[in-house]
Structures are given as structure tokens and as C-alpha cells.
Amino acid sequence: MNRSRVGLAVVAVAAVLAVSWALRATWHAAPHSGGDNAAYVALADALLDGRGYTEVWDPAAPPHTKYPPVFPLALAAAIGLGATTWGALKGVPLLFGLVALAGTVGWGWRRRGPLWGVLAALLTGWSAAFLHYAHYLLSDVPFLAFTVVALWLVERRRSDEWGEVVGAPPPRSEEGDRSAAPGSVAVAAALGVAGLAWFTRSAGLPLLLAIGLWLVLSKRWRAAAAGAVVLGVPSVWWLLRARNAVGDGAYDREFWMVNPYQPELGEIGLFGLVPRAVENAMGYLGGHLPAALTGSGEGVALAGIAAGFLALIGWGRAVAREIGPAELFAPLYTALILVWPVVWSGDRFALPLVPLVIVYAGEALAWGVARFRADVAVPAMVTSVLVLLAVQGAGVAYAAGVSGDCRAAARVGGPWACSGMGMVQFTEAARWAGENVPEGSATLTRKPRIWYAMGGTPTRTYPFLADPDSLLAVAARAGATYVVLDGVAGQARLLAAAIAARPSAFCSVAGFGGAGGGLRTELLGILPSTGEAAVEGDQVTLAACPAAMRGSGAALTPYRSSMPIPILSSSPSP
């Protein structure tokens, strides 16, 4: 074995150990405080129970049309195998994360050589966004995995380790070009994997378009036509299924809103996409992309911004020399996330670009250095990788500390303790309602999907308005007889104002927390007619609800990380 192979083996082993340590150090049992992870679990449970792909948390249980079904299907498989705790199900995104890193190795290897692949995977594995989302039941890391694997399958063998990068591509014959191009099997596999990406996240559409456009530019007409038919049929079915969606939002409606979380702000028109794209571009270049690559902070942000500019140069050079699927995917995906609502922007949407940014930035740096002194290209690249690893290492150390604190808090207060006392009380109220309120009773809450996952009772979001008429109208449409005044988010103050404006329409069922005058979550009943209430100045005191609404009042054992997710409690936890 020659020295270069020994060196590569040492680097590969070191990379595996470094990423393994980072994943272990940043692991924690806490669920994500947003509702997406609970929605995926609920959809998976519904599929397993034969209820179809439906929003089982909603009182009307409409068909679900917002999140494509691949990730819930993966969770359903894990649940079927016995994974019923939040921690056990986190093995699913973790496995996808390993696939994503393997795909990054394959893509970089095929594009520039084995060392490029290994280092790109190491830097991706140490990126802040990867380490963060690999530990949550979200579709971001599975989408990354499908994306890089698809790009790997259709990447052309471009050159040896350094030749083309430094501006001296080896001579290639027409026969050599054909042998370097991906074959029919690889193209078919790439189309299939891209289809999985599209049915994992709606943001997978640019990947499908990129591969399809590349096939057209390459004059591979049969493959392009076959892919259009095979993937077009299920895509049309999915889009038609969403056409008359009445459930938990739909991207085609939310896309045009100024803020999907504040519908009252209205919508934008076609020309409104331009200032939105400009605002998003500034946010991604100056914040989200650096945060995804290196974490937060001024120093690390500068490193991320530098990598972003270098990547832009590297992409431009790549396009000028040869357009491949990656060169098409990068601008198409970037354009998509730039025109999405600003409130959706974040490092999670920059994650699929991280491996591309790393490789493109490396190509630009190597080319730029080699233009002046080719003999220092390799030392310059090594130094740059070490500097970036050092910057990322600070982020990994910080994330490890946060995760350690979260693990300690979870051991005492359960997995939701990492999200604050308001979320602990909210989930305890959900569990209590699942055991005590009459079967089938619906509740208005701030986070319906988490409420359902933790209690199993139907629920819908209360209106973010300080208007009792709007609140009662939403309750009537949902058939809701309960509402939760929570300490989770700021919208609760609007709910409190609506209740205070008409206290006779509500009664008290149960309270959670509040010891020593601290934060307290209230489960309230919605009365069909005027009830008694005493009002003293600004203080509103609600009467107790009828006994039938309060149930038995049975106490619950504290929820711990080792306990199954309540809606999955019929299955044993591993």
C-alpha cells in the first residue's frame, strides 16, 4: 500500500471518529418544540392504524396534503419495529444522516477524488445545521440524504484529485467522456432517489427539475421522457390531492401570505416576490448559511460568509466549464428558498446547500491559489480545512454543552423540560385531557399536533385575535368544548384578552403549575350558554366547569424520556 493510500485511510478513520463523537456529544432526548415532529409521528401512527394519510389531530380528520409521505412512512416502519419513545424514533433521522454523509463522500469522490469526498463529508458532519437536525424528527436530514445520493449517482468523473481544479485538465477523448458519464442504471436510480426527495419535502422539486434539465441538455431523451412519466403520475396525483385541501394549511396558499403565522397581514402579489427575495438573500448570506455551516456568532459568521462567496465563485467556474446536475440544482433550490416567506427562512433550508458550498468553495480556493503558486495549492487547502474545522469545533463544543444541559434537565423534568416550563405544563395538560375529558372532546390549542401526540384528543388552533366572537366561532366550527390558555407562546395574551372580554362563556377545568405565583397553564371549558363569573377590576375569576366536563380528575405519573409517546403507548417501547 503506497503512502497516499495510507494517508487517505488515516484521514477517513479520523473523519469517522470525529463525526461519531460530534453526533454522540450533541445527542439529546428532547422533541422539537415546533409541531412538525409531532405531525410526522401522528401521520405515521395513522398509517399504521389503517386510518390513511389523514390529519388525525383535527376534529374533521381531513386528508393531509402538506407534508409528503416518505418520512412518515419511515417513522411508521420504525414504530412497527417497536420504537415508541421520542429518543428511539430519533434513530430514523440519525440513520438518514449517515446516508447523507456517505452520499457526500460518494459525490465528492466522483467529482474530484476520494480526499475531496472524505473532507466534504467531515465538514458537513461537523456543520451546525447537520448536527442540530440529525437529532430531531424532522424531514431536513432525510431530504439532505436523498439529495446528495441523487447528485452522486449522476455526477460525472471530472478529473483526478487536483488536475482540473488548478486549471490544467487532462486531455479527454470523446470515448473517455462517454465512459465518465453516468450510465442508464445510475440515471434511473438517481431519478428514483430524486423522486423520494420530492416526496419527502416539497422543496425537492428543484432536484427533479435539475436532473430532468440535465438529461435534456445531455440529449438523453429516453431517460428524460421515462422519468417525466414515472414521476409525473404520482406527482400529479399528489398535487391534485392537495388542490381542495381544507386541513392544516397548504404551501400554495401560505406561499403568498406576508406571514403564514399571521394571516391577517394579507398576501403579496407577483411583484412582491422581488423585495422578499432580496430580504431573504441578505438573511441567508449574512446569517442562515453561515449559521448552517459554522454556527452562530460574529467570528463564525465571517467564516461562513467567506465560504459562501468562495462557493459562488466555484459554482460560476464550474458552470463555465461544464454544467452538471449539481450546477443546476444549486441555483434552482436557492431561488426557491429566496422566494419563500421570510419567516420560513432559516439554517434548516440552507442545509441541502452545505455540501455543495464546501466543495465549490474548495474548488475556487484551490484554483485561485494555484493561479499564483501551484505548489502551495495543497498546503493552502489543508490549512483552510483545519481553520474551518476549528471554527466548527467551537460550534460543536457549544452544541455539546447545550445538549448536555438538555439531557440533565430531561432526567429531572422529562423530555419537554428542554423547551421550557410552559411546554412541560402544556404537554401535561394534554396528557391529563387524554385521560379525563369525555371521549371525542375537541380542544382549541396553540400547538394542536403536539397536543394530540401527547394526549390523543382532537384539537385545532385557536385564532390569534383578542376577539371573543372569533374565538367562539372557531370553537363552534371545530365542535370544541375546551380551550387551553398556555404559557408556550406570545399568542396566549390575545387568547387571554378574548376570554377576559367575555368570561361568562368559559369555565375552569384544571390548572397546571403556578406554584408560588409562577407560570400556570389553564385548561378551560367553553360553555354553551352564559355561566357564572366574578370580575374584580382587571382580575377575572372563572367558575368551575360542570362535573361532566371535569372528568375524574385522575392524577398522572410524571412523563419521562423512557415512556412511549402517548398516542403510541399501545405498543411496547424498546
SSE layout and pairing:
Elements: H1 3-25, H2 36-48, H3 70-80, H4 86-89, H5 91-112, H6 114-125, H7 128-133, H8 140-154, H9 174-180, H10 184-198, H11 205-217, H12 221-243, H13 251-254, H14 273-294, H15 298-321, H16 325-339, H17 347-350, H18 354-372, H19 377-413, H20 421-436, E1 442-445, H21 448-455, E2 459-461, H22 468-478, E3 480-485, H23 492-501, E4 506-513, E5 520-526, E6 533-536, E7 539-542, H24 547-550
Parallel strand pairs: 1-2, 1-3
Antiparallel strand pairs: 3-5, 4-5, 6-7
Helix pairs in contact: 1-6, 2-3, 2-21, 5-6, 5-8, 6-18, 8-10, 10-11, 11-12, 11-16, 14-15, 14-16, 15-18, 18-19, 20-21
Structural features, described:
- The structure is a single chain.
- The chain is 59% helix and 6% strand.
- The strands form two sheets. The chain has a five-stranded mixed beta sheet with strand order 2-1-3-5-4, sandwiched between helices.
- About 5% of the residues have low confidence.
- With 574 residues, it is of the alpha/beta class.
- Strand 4 and strand 5 form a beta hairpin.
- Helix 5 runs antiparallel to helix 6, helix 15 packs across helix 18 and helix 18 runs antiparallel to helix 19.
